[in-house]
Amino acid sequence: MSQVAIGSCTNSSYKDLLGIAAIMKGKTVHPSVSLGFSPGSRQTLEMISQNGVLGDLITAGARLLESACGPCIGMGFAPPSGGVSVRTFNRNFEGRSGTKDAKVYLASPEVAAACAITGVITDPRDLGVKPETVEIPEKYVLDDRMMIFPPKDGHGIEVLRGPNIKPLPTRDRISETVSGTVLLKVGDNITTDHIMPAGAKVLPLRSNVPAISQYVFESVDPTFPKRAKEAGGGFIVGGANYGQGSSREHAALAPMYLGVKAVIVKGFARIHLANLINFGILPLTFVNEADYDKIDRDDQLEFSTGGLEKGTLVLKTSQRR
Predict the structure, then answer these.
(1) Fold annotation for 3-127
(2) Listed residue (119, 118, 136, 135) closest to 127, CA to CA
């Protein structure tokens, strides 16, 4: 094992960090392992600095990382090529760590701490350390001195936008007849990472939809954005559980900007389904899943939205280009 990463938005609470500190206390990180931890908030960091936990972790050989998405989406602390990384995050996807060929495993904070000590996948119970009973404080540190609160009356407030901040794009009302090209056909379990990658290259563009849209389906088909624009938009066809993974609004917003009119699949992940609706892309599912096999990329599709009220649409397929 070459790396252990603990924290970010998940498994990074005050209780979590006290638990790993109890396992690490008096021990050191294995020579082959780099251990980094990201406190879940500035307040959490302040509390562990006050009670000595921060010092215990640093003494054990851990590295303090910023309270941010960070390693979870490949923004720093990426594993070495081909390296094994144990992480306490809630998402795992090929290349998400910032290293395409890394071998990433998800684990609890306690398991991650044990792995950091031994350098191999380890059950913390095998270390002979009894689970620490963490006392939850009656009151947490609250420091809002650096926060800028909105005024009671927001009228007349000027929104300052830098060159990388663009207004939210909108789209016209869906017409009665919707037609276009099948821009892409994918299989089951397409994640929002497939649709809209994150990472150091893409994340800075979240406020610039025209720019971030150039990375839609980058790991699946890098030609997708160019083809979508040239075709004037169209359709995506997919399998089951389409849109699983992170709740990433840009996985619906950016395809909408590229002109995607509808996504036709065997089944949707719940949150992505809601995001498609929110950004004006029709989410459609096959009544007969076998019809998935009758559609291919570059087919021409057409349907009337008149059937939406009844919940059923008739999809017409015409000759491919």
Answers:
(1) Aconitase; domain 3 (3.30.499)
(2) 118
